[in-house]
Inverse folding.
């Protein structure tokens, strides 16, 4: 079934049209890739799909519900979670707190001003479980700014996971990772796809072609091609838009 | 370096060494203030300003929202108290409630304009609002007495059951203020160690991420501002009782700047107790240094500038660094530092 | 209706002088991405320093001082016009040196530092020159009033407006036609690029701070006979400056000039109807504009918006 759908999304910044006519449709349980050259509008697309910007035209539907124009925190609570290309972590806090803050159970505790935070073992356990999924459980009490780049990338995803989403939007999760890091990440995504629907922006085409079930190619603010990796490899427009060949 | 985001070793329990010291100093002040060459009224001022500074730091240090116009809410609280005594009835709790209410309403309205922003726009807006309030207080002669201020504000007696205690004596008044301040500090301690405190800090560290994991950031920012205004209002009401008058000058940019300087120099950016240290240091500078030279504020301002340049962690940070130098370094923990 | 004309002229004069203040301010913000809350204090300092230059200042009673006071008022005035701003510019450069430890840290620290500096400068002014209002003496030739079209105009305001126009044009010429001006302009747009091109960014920042502060200082001196001279003028200068660059856009030359004239006129017109509130009108305008969306008419996104 179609879990997430965008229809005819348009986004303008002043006179500049960044997204002209974006439509995509993501089936539950699949990994959907988004690729395209720099400046094509991929990240803006993510921003619109996750509520950071409201689209000037078009509709976004999540599990049958129209979420167009809703505020980001409402969208997050509905089960849509995202990670960021330029990492957005809580840098003064320890790793486990980064994750705890995203737990819906923690968020709901916010309204009672006098609870003790780290004494609650249910929350600590839940947070550690998420960290375990990305392999950071043994770094739980370190400050997030003391982590290595690869570990911070993993934390970036862990925070998105902690919010208990149904669909996960990952914006260039391999950025800056070396070969080993990329492999570890691919492994993680294979693991995560059993539980979550994933939408992935990526530059690394080999990575994307290996993991994605379907890919949308965005260029000049439009979806110029869409299909399975195999179909796209044969598509001449994809080759023409200078995306290069997959080695 | 310590930060406000450090996890307290003993959870949110109020039974810590600094809290004990604070309570002890507060409780014994009348007995030794004059012995060290100071005077009782100073104790009153310091306690009131600690109340103001603690509430202010919830916004400034914890939430990372920099208000340079907070004196306005202290002033509104003072006028609220005074006007209640003069126009409604002479009542201690009525007056203080009026003070808190007036400041909270003002804070809520201003907060609604501010909470979409952060950073420099936020700061300049707070200055703008502060100036508007100050100007209004100066001009609305019929309400506030203008530049001459609201005078002859009574200090109502404290009535508990059948006991009636006069607060006219500065020592008695000091005890009253000290108890209120102590309760407020305790409350603040619980709040910053609860999820609320961590959420506000998350917003300071990364508003965007906080939003994307489901927090209504606008509402939290608004709440932080309004609560800090409420604290300021209470402090203002007590201040009106203390000086038995209310003037516009606390609402000026100058005075609003002083609270910022106090909190930073004390170490409010890195420690819960920073504001307390900052307030004490300021009043010592004012009275002790001020006794030696007319230029004391110039020196204090220079100290502030130098601290921003080299030690923005303030006094609390310096104390912590010194304590660390004398203790052996701890290894990085693999599990939670101490058992709760 | 004719009674509005003097106020409009007042507003225009005020606006042109605001433009000088705002230009210095926007150059500093553009190159450094620091909101210089001390800009207003340097404005005030420039005026006071010029005041002391015209009088004998610290040389009173000395042979030099006596000789100095015997010079014609006009000469002393114009020397003050040159010296006051130069000294303000030097103070500005000192401020930049103090700001260096805060680069690379959160913008909060730069803001706090310039705020502290503003308080320090204002306290220093208060201690040296006293809290009371002072009068800026003006040479005979540019004081008094003249008649035009049946209305009386103040000669000094006319001169002030003319001076401001000349100064604005000179700043424009400097930025557009000289190589150093080009570097400053480039730096205001992209300081990283300027460094990559091999220019000494540290020296550039120092000079921009000095230049911007000197502009503030000269505006201070020229405005003193109109606005009066008190130690705590500073904030009434910084807020309009900020408002102007928000309306006109950060880093935009003509945007700042246009917005300055707009703000000046608004102040002048409210001065006609509710004189007590004319200063407040700027704060209310700030709240109205920044309290809602604001990126300015001619400007681009800057690091101010985080």
């Amino acid at each position: 079934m179609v879990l997430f759908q965008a229809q005819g999304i348009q986004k303008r910044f002043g006179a500049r049209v960044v997204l002209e006519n974006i439509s995509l449709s993501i089936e539950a349980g699949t990994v959907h890739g988004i690729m395209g050259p720099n400046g094509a509008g991929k990240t803006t697309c993510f921003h619109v799909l996750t509520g950071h910007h409201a689209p000037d035209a078009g509709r976004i539907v999540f599990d049958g519900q129209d979420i167009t124009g809703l505020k980001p925190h409402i969208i997050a609570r509905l089960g849509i979670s995202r990670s960021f290309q330029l990492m957005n972590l809580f840098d003064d806090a320890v790793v486990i707190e980064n994750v705890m803050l995203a737990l819906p159970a923690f968020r709901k505790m916010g309204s009672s001003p006098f609870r003790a935070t780290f004494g609650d073992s249910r929350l600590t356990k839940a947070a550690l479980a998420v960290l375990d999924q990305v392999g950071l459980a043994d770094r739980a009490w370190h400050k997030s700014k003391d982590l290595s780049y690869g570990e911070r990338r993993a934390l970036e995803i862990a925070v998105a996971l902690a919010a208990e989403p149904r669909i996960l939007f990952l914006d260039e999760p391999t950025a800056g990772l070396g070969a080993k890091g990329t492999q570890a990440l691919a492994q993680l995504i294979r693991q995560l796809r059993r539980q979550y629907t994933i939408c992935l922006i990526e530059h690394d085409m080999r990575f994307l072609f290996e993991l994605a079930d379907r890919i949308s190619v965005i260029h000049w603010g439009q979806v110029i091609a869409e299909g399975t990796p195999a179909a796209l490899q044969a598509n001449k427009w994809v080759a023409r838009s200078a995306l290069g060949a997959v080695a | 370096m310590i930060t406000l985001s450090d996890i307290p070793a003993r959870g949110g329990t109020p039974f810590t060494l600094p809290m004990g010291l604070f309570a002890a100093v507060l409780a014994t002040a009348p007995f030794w203030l004059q012995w060290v060459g100071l005077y009782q009224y100073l104790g009153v001022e310091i306690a009131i300003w600690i109340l103001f500074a603690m509430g202010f730091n919830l916004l400034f240090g914890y939430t990372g929202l920099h208000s340079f116009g907070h004196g306005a809410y202290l002033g509104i609280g003072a006028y609220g108290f005074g006007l209640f005594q003069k126009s409604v009835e002479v009542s201690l709790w009525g007056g203080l409630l009026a003070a808190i209410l007036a400041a909270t309403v003002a804070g809520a309205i201003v907060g609604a304009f501010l909470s979409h922003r952060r950073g420099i726009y936020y700061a300049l807006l707070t200055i703008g609002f502060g100036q508007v309030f100050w100007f209004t207080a100066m001009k609305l002669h019929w309400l506030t007495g203008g530049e001459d201020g609201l005078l002859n504000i009574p200090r109502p007696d404290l009535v508990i059951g059948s006991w009636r205690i006069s607060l006219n004596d500065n020592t008695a008044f000091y005890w009253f203020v000290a108890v209120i301040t102590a309760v407020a500090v305790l409350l603040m301690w619980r709040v910053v160690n609860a999820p609320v405190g961590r959420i506000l800090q998350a917003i300071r560290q990364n508003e965007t991420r906080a939003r994307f994991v489901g927090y209504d950031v606008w509402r939290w920012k608004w709440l932080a501002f309004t609560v800090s205004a409420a604290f300021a209002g209470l402090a203002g009401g007590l201040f009106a009782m203390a000086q038995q008058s209310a003037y516009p000058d606390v609402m000026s940019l100058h005075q609003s700047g002083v609270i910022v300087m106090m909190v930073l120099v004390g170490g409010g950016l890195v420690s819960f107790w920073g504001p307390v240290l900052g307030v004490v240091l300021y009043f010592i500078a004012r009275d002790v240094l001020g006794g030696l030279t007319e230029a004391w504020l110039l020196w204090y301002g220079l100290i502030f500038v130098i601290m921003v340049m080299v030690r923005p962690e303030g006094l609390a940070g310096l104390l912590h660094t010194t304590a660390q130098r004398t203790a052996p370094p701890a290894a990085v923990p693999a599990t939670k530092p101490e058992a709760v | 209706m004719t009674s509005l004309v003097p106020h409009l002229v007042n507003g225009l004069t005020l606006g042109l002088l605001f433009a000088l203040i705002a230009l210095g301010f926007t150059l500093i913000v553009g190159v450094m991405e620091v909101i210089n809350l001390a800009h207003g204090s340097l404005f005030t300092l420039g005026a006071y320093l010029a005041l002391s230059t015209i009088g004998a200042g610290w040389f009173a009673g000395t042979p030099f001082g006596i000789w100095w006071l015997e010079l014609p008022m006009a000469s002393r005035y114009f020397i003050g016009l040159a010296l006051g701003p130069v000294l303000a510019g030097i103070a500005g450069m000192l401020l930049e040196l103090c700001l260096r430890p805060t680069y690379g840290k959160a913008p909060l620290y730069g803001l706090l530092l310039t705020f502290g500096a503003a308080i320090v400068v204002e306290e220093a002014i208060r201690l040296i020159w006293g809290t009371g209002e002072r009068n800026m003496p003006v040479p005979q030739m540019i004081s008094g009033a003249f008649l035009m079209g049946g209305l009386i105009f103040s000669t000094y305001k006319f001169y002030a407006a003319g001076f401001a126009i000349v100064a604005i044009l000179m700043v424009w010429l400097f930025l557009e036609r000289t190589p150093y001006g080009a570097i400053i302009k480039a730096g205001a747009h992209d300081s990283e690029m300027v460094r990559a091109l091999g220019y000494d960014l540290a020296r550039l920042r120092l000079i921009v701070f000095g230049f911007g502060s000197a502009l503030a200082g000269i505006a201070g001196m020229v405005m003193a006979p109109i606005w009066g001279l008190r130690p705590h003028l500073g904030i009434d200068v910084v807020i309009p400056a900020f408002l102007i660059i928000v309306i006109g856009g950060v880093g935009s030359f003509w945007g700042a000039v246009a917005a300055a004239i707009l703000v000046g006129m608004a102040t002048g017109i409210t001065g006609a109807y509710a004189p007590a509130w004319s200063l407040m009108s700027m704060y209310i305008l700030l709240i109205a504009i920044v309290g809602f969306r604001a990126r300015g008419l001619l400007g681009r996104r800057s690091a101010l918006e985080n």
